[in-house]
Amino acid sequence: xxxxxxxxxxxxxxxxxxxxxxxxxxxxxxxxxxxxxxxxxxxxxxxxxxxxxxxxxxxxxxxxxxxxxxxxxxxxxxxxxxxxxxxxxxxxxxxxxxxxxxxxxxxxxxxxxxxxxxxxxxxxxxxxxxxxxxxxxxxxxxxxxxxxxxxxxxxxxxxxxxxxxxxxxxxxxxxxxxxxxxxxxxxxxxxxxxxxxxxxxxxxxxxxxxxxxxxxxxxxxxxxxxxxxxxxxxxxxxxxxxxxxxxxxxxxxxxxxxxxxxxxxxxxxxxxxxxxxxxxxxxxxxxxxxxxxxx
Length: 295
Ligand code: URA
Known about the structure:
The chain is 42% helix and 12% strand. It has helices spanning 4-12, 17-29, 88-102, 107-116, 121-124, 150-155, 162-172, 199-216, 226-233, 239-242, 266-271, 276-294, and strands spanning 2-3, 35-36, 76-78, 134-135, 141-145, 181-185, 220-224, 247-250, 258-263.
């Protein structure tokens, strides 16, 4: 279900019928099979239930609270040293990861080095498969999510479970599929019981994620969810504040910074379907940025 107000607000913002059709398709594919009003409407004049929805209750239009124009200098995120709060042992693991990752000159080498990496044994020992990446490594768009779940662990591929299927449908609505994007995570093994990866685990794997991005060198980076945005943008700002704003990701092995867009994680959208319209706005930004960069 989706609110009729949000449908009409969003549809009204399009001059192009094709965009409106794509939005309706996106709603349908996201599981919105009925349009309902935000407030109940009494057809019989029942006390306490407004005959028409109150104007004040109309939700805000689908625009980010603090838009950052794509052309105003975007915030930079250059990879820096890990948080000082980590224990010395964790920092030593991160240092060995950095040395190991630096030795990878291809994705195949990176995958092999990672497979032998013993720095996150609590994850590796309990996982069925390492989950490296999926999609087209030559693609211009690279997405980075959080960590594999049970389905990903079983199949050895990122985003193949329920939230991955929603992500595929969302990206499909702007014309992208796994032949036109490449996808990975900031954590390569499933955390037991689907717990969040710890700070130490993320710091230990960060050099591999950094090298992964350097080797793919995408033209646009999409950070799917808070864990990925925090790990790659060196910020603790909430995803609600970060999403929909363009950042620049940079690291020593990249010739130039990469335009980077954080978005809500599809698992969050499954729990909070009302947030899909924010994500739709973000996907339209992504679509037009891709069009600018690639054509
Ligand atoms: N969620 C993620 O962040 N990554 C996956 O691969 C699957 C679910």
